[in-house]
Amino acid sequence: MYIYDTHVHTSQASDCALSSGAQMAQKYKELGYDGIFITDHFFHGNTCVDRSLPWADWVRLFCQGYEDAKKQGEKIGLDVFFGWEYSYQGSDLLTYGLDKEWLTAHPEVVKVGIAEYFRLIHESGGFIVHAHPFREAPYIHHIQLFPRQVDGVEIINASHKDEKFNERAEFYAKTYNLPVSGGSDSHTTWSIAGGGIETEEKITSADDYLRIMREGKLKVRSRREDFLCDMPKDFDWDKIKRAAL
């Protein structure tokens, strides 16, 4: 079976992450994964890229974590794919199938409303998986679902210690007959909690991932406590607290 993580962050674009794209790629290779999707927090989410920059510069810096992960992946034999985590009033939408060039050419993506966002992504050939749809947190004021707009549901977010969030996501997906997937939602090399998907077919593109998900030809992986490592001595707890404000 091939193993992929569809939900990975880097410190180069996500303000709540502490490991670079290259570091994340290296760790996933060591854990036995065949590939990862870098899905850093996008413009209206918890990004660390200065939003006052000209759009082309913002996109260039936003993509740096992915590009460094991909470069490292090419060295060590790990496939790395691009995506982002779009946030809307507490809802997080993993967006795949588009690239840096598309982002550069579409600055309006950060100005449109949620309905227009779905339309723009789909008309451009991309697709969307609703990440952790039932997560509860202080920054989430209400839960929103988009069963007629999303292409899939993340039914196991391995970072969740409270299984009821994943159980509700699975029930939701089954109720609407939506394709399912899973991811770790990892932000550091020492807190990768397993998760992701297993497939009998090698994924070579985001389109492969979408097709396999729609056909139900994947197994969603559960949390792996034995993947977790000790917190490093130079852990920047202040950064995490600042990012949460």
* CATH topological fold name: TIM Barrel
Question: What is the H level of CATH, i.e. the homologous superfamily?
Answer: Metal-dependent hydrolases
Which bin fits the share of residues in helices?
25-40%
From the helix content, strand content and strand pairing, which structural class follows? alpha/beta
Contiguous uncertain segments of 5+ residues: 241-245
CATH second-level architecture: Alpha-Beta Barrel
Helical run tally: 8
Give a short account of the largest sheet: 9 strands, mixed
In CATH's first tier, which class applies? Answer: Alpha Beta
Strands in their spatial order, largest beta sheet: 7-6-5-4-3-2-1-8-9
User: Could you tell me how far the N terminus lies from the C terminus, measured between alpha carbons in angstroms?
Assistant: 41 Å
Percent of residues in beta strands: 15-25%
Instruction: Count the domains.
Output: 1
What is the β-strand count?
9
